[in-house]
Design goal:
Spore Coat Polysaccharide Biosynthesis Protein SpsA, Chain A; 2 domains; 13 helices
């Protein structure tokens, strides 16, 4: 474990020692940094990540650098440059994705709490971990806690995730101006998958797999948020502490591969959590909406692969329906009829707020399916612009 003195001990619970004295209670924490070819993909961002993490002001933590079979010399570089800081390098024999790497590394951790981090995270607040641990100690109803993730000093990257019943999820308040004027937590539907902390007991309740390994990457945090909520716990984000996240370091902000994983896993998530009758009404909508999404991305990028990606998603979902349905049955045996207990957003996320005829028609069809699925209280009532789907925004800012 690292041993870095932290002067910010205010409000940390005191633990009685054998001699009758008291000392601050610092539960052990294991931080998992997941990597694949980080040296070649991220450059100095990988150094920024590890340099900032080893300077974290918390006296009882370890760092596991979990490498997904990199072939660019990243592992050797990390061992040479950061070996003196006690970072444990875990070499995966093959690339099992973000989800598989996290699940495997869980079995190697020593901490009573576990943090999951992307390799493009920078800890700009050295006391971030102390803040998260203190909050978890005070709030037993919270299953997962995250810092606010910033894109830069002024703009938010993520304050957790929202989702609607169309199985479209997005980062709350992304690219809005950040103001740390409140110490009050917010409670989103899911954590920002790039950085969050949970108790080991949560993983044990999930059979020691915090993610669904079949997802590989993307939407695993959305499903986790649903699961935590159905356990009667909450997901919290603390604006009082921040990490910086340079989104897109591994997959790019927009790419056909990223589109595939996002949209396939979105449909898998819907199949898992909704009741059988609800899936029957909504599955055609989930599948066909990929055609529209692919066309939107094609218009943004002029990359013809986005016109083929939706068909790849549909074929993959149909080919894997047997396995997906087995997960659906296991999930509902454990949780019962669950979807109505979740807090879906009434928002449709698009590149602009303009209501064209085509969008009005899509909105009407979507709400028709939502109504007949028995989910009328989650009907779509508003359209919101999302900057990362706006070609003009991306051109100016990236």
């Amino acid at each position: 474990m690292q041993s870095i003195v932290n002067p910010a001990l205010t409000d940390i619970p005191l633990q009685t020692q054998e001699d009758g004295s008291t000392a601050p209670d610092f539960p052990s924490v294991s931080l998992l940094v997941i990597n694949h070819n980080g040296k070649s993909k991220l450059g100095h961002l990988l150094d920024d990540c590890l340099e900032s993490l080893v300077k974290t002001s918390y006296p009882n933590f370890e760092i596991l650098f979990v490498d997904n079979c990199s072939n660019d010399g990243t592992v050797e570089y990390v061992e040479r440059v950061f070996g003196e800081y006690g970072i444990r390098v875990v070499r995966m024999p093959s690339n099992v994705g973000y989800t598989g790497a996290v699940n495997h590394a869980l079995g190697l951790t020593k901490g009573s709490m576990v943090g999951v981090l992307n390799n493009d995270i920078t800890a700009i607040d050295p006391y971030w971990l102390t803040t998260l641990v203190r909050f978890m100690q005070r709030e037993p109803s919270v299953g997962i806690v995250s810092p606010a993730l910033l894109h830069d000093e002024k703009r938010i990257d993520s304050m957790g995730g929202d989702a609607n019943v169309l199985m479209v999820a997005w980062d709350a308040h992304s690219r809005e101006e950040f103001s740390a004027t409140s110490d009050q937590p917010i409670f989103p539907m899911s954590p920002p998958g790039a950085a969050f902390l949970f108790r080991r007991g949560l993983a044990e309740k999930l059979d020691n797999e915090i993610f669904d390994s079949d997802y590989f990457a993307y939407y695993e945090d959305v499903l986790l948020g649903f699961q935590v909520t159905l356990m009667g716990q909450r997901v919290a984000v603390l604006p009082s502490t921040t990490l910086q996240h340079k989104r897109g370091g591994s997959w790019g902000l927009i790419s056909p591969a990223k589109f595939f994983f996002q949209r396939r896993n979105a449909v898998w998530t819907g199949i898992t959590i909704f009741d059988t009758s609800q899936v029957l009404f909504l599955l055609p909508l989930w599948l066909l909406s990929n055609l529209y999404a692919g066309f939107v991305y094609f218009k943004m990028t002029r990359n013809s692969k986005f016109l083929l990606s939706p068909f790849r998603v549909i074929l993959s979902v149909l080919a894997g329906m047997g396995k997906a349905w087995s997960k659906h049955e296991r999930f509902h045996q454990k949780n019962g009829s669950s979807a109505k207990a979740l807090n879906f957003s009434p928002t449709m996320i698009l590149g602009s707020e303009k209501l064209t005829f085509g969008r009005k028609l899509a909105l009407a069809v979507s709400n028709f399916a939502i109504r007949f699925a028995g989910l009328s209280k989650f009907r779509i009532t508003e359209i919101k612009r999302y900057p990362l789907l706006d070609a003009e925004y991306l051109e100016k800012n990236y």
